[in-house]
TrEMBL record:
GO terms for molecular function: acid phosphatase activity; metal ion binding. Keywords: Signal. Residues 370-391 are annotated as: Disordered. Residues 47-128 form the Purple acid phosphatase N-terminal domain. InterPro entries: Calcineurin-like_PHP, Metallo-depent_PP-like, PAPs-like, PAPs_N, Purple_acid_Pase-like_N, TAT_signal. It holds the Pfam family Metallophos. Residues 189-369 form the Calcineurin-like phosphoesterase domain. This is Metallophosphoesterase family protein.
Length: 509
């Protein structure tokens, strides 16, 4: 795995062929034409998707995958007004699935020096294949309004396992995994955060098919707006990569964090407008044994050190108002007989969130929707119970504390919204026991706590997503994010708002 000279890491390869788009086009940048597909049997352009670079106003990457080698993977790039005027070469990264032996090739084309707040059109193509089209809007540079969305725990709506002559879903997916994608696309965000447990390929009979089904479902949104992921425990696949995330690291392009080669792509950050988004991989610090292998502590503290440096830099940057963390496992949860909150995260990352004033944390792992009061500080008990800084639920000053949101209803077939404690309590994983020879897992050890931090819970809806509308405000005043959680209640992306609130904080300048 190598580091791109332009600061973007793509699992296993440097992204090349970047093109300058800041200067006016010249006669040399004449429109490019693609040839009609030939008869050589080239595989199609599959799973087309976008990611932002570290500066979302200037960088993006177009990616697609095949399972056989292709010739001249490339992207034709242009604007709606001017048509295609540039060709950007794609580099290819690979991984071989340890279960099936299938090698997957993922083609990544870096679009660099884009114009902020601008609409682009593109076509991904390789020799012998029909081009696949998409659009991209870059983030604004500086303070400007925009929307982003978030959910976790999706799976696929497809059937991938033959059981007693009948096909079934074997990746915890349901039809709602398709409905929620359609609802997100209907909300038309600038970008979408996926809070871990994307497709549950580690549970499936055919991991390659499951990843392919996930991209086939989501390309109808991810080819038009970047889907920015966090790795969850179910992205941990036995035998794939040094710590099990080889597939995830190859499929997704994320900004480089300076991590060692085998860990690159597992944590990262990017800026959109005045919002700094930090994506973490919680399996490094969480106690729970939830993937195909137990990898607690895998980074040797590297992720923790990076996170503190990143938070310090973000909070001292006068151009950043908001710090948003995207991760999978949770600090808060008030359901019984499910995963629970994790003391490992409370011990390691929550003190950093407090110290540097993180505004918002979006997570998944629990398959329902709930949110906390703004929390700041911890009780001196065995579970380090978060302390609520305020109990108002409609308008929240995030300088007083961090709001945690559990948004785990992206489509999984195992919702947890009917398991809420009444009154609210929380099961916290404080340690794990020795490996159970029957399951191969380390069983969690739970301690029950009261939940004074619990603010809003939705027991009535299993599926949904959250939308965040950023208002930069005026110099010398406040900036705000209006948050709406939408329950997705049926086909055709039928959505109902069930929770609305506003986050506020002073604008930096």
């Amino acid at each position: 795995m190598t580091l791109s000279r332009r600061g973007l890491f793509v699992g296993g390869a440097t992204v090349g062929g970047a093109v300058l788009l800041g200067a006016p086009e010249t006669a040399a940048a004449a429109p490019q034409l693609w040839a009609q597909p030939g008869s050589l049997g080239a595989p199609p352009v599959s799973g087309l998707h976008l990611q932002f670079g570290a500066d979302a106003s200037r960088q993006a990457v177009v990616s697609w995958h095949t399972t056989t080698a292709v010739s001249r993977p490339r992207v034709l790039l242009g604007t709606p007004e001017g048509g295609f005027g540039h060709v950007v070469s794609a580099d290819t990264s690979t991984y071989r699935d340890a279960k099936s032996g299938t090698e997957v090739r993922v083609h990544h084309a870096l679009l660099d020096n884009l114009r902020p707040g601008t609409d682009y059109i593109y076509a991904a193509v390789h020799d012998g294949a029909a081009p696949e089209l998409g659009t991209l809007r870059t983030a604004p540079r500086g303070r400007a309004p925009f929307r982003f969305t978030s959910f976790g725990d999706q799976g696929t709506p497809t059937l991938g396992k033959l059981s007693n002559g009948t096909y079934v879903n074997d990746n915890l997916g349901s039809p709602y995994a398709g409905d929620v994608t359609a609802a997100v696309e209907g909300a038309a965000p600038l970008f979408h955060l996926v809070n871990g447990d994307l497709c549950y390929a580690n549970l499936s009979t055919d991991r390659i098919r499951t990843w392919s089904d996930w991209f086939d479902n989501n390309t109808r949104s991810a080819r038009f707006r970047p889907w920015m992921p966090a790795a969850g425990n179910h992205e941990n696949e036995l035998g794939n990569g040094p710590v099990g995330y080889g597939a995830y690291q190859t499929y997704f392009t994320v900004p480089d964090s300076g991590a060692d080669a085998e860990l690159r792509g597992l944590w990262y950050a990017f800026t959109a407008g005045s919002v700094r988004v930090i994506s973490l991989n919680n399996d490094d610090v969480a106690y729970q044994d939830g993937g195909n292998s137990y990898v607690h502590g895998y980074s040797g503290g590297a992720q923790q050190r990076w996170l503190e440096a990143e938070l310090a830099a973000s909070r001292s940057d006068p151009d950043i108002d908001w710090i948003v963390v995207c991760m999978h496992q949770v600090v808060i949860s008030t359901v019984d007989k499910f995963n629970g909150a994790d003391l490992g995260i409370r011990e390691t990352w929550v003190p950093l969130f407090d110290r540097y004033g993180v505004d918002l944390v979006v997570s998944g792992h629990e398959h329902h929707y709930e949110r906390s009061h703004p929390i700041r500080g911890q009780q001196p008990n065995d579970t380090r119970t978060p302390i609520p800084a305020d109990t108002r639920t409609d308008v929240i000053d995030t300088t007083r504390g961090t709001v945690h949101m559990v948004i785990g209803g992206g489509g999984t077939s195992v919702p947890s919204n009917k398991l809420f404690y009444s009154p609210a309590q929380c099961r916290v994983i404080t340690a794990v026991g020795p490996t159970d020879p029957g399951t191969g897992k380390k069983p969690p050890i739970y301690v029950l706590e009261d939940a004074p931090w619990s603010a809003v819970r939705d027991p009535d809806h299993a599926y949904g997503f959250a939308a965040f509308d950023v208002d930069p405000g005026r110099p010398g005043g406040t900036t705000s994010i209006d948050v709406t959680y939408y329950a997705v209640t049926g086909p055709y992306a039928t959505s109902t708002p069930v929770d609305r609130f506003r986050l506020t904080r002073p604008r930096r300048h």
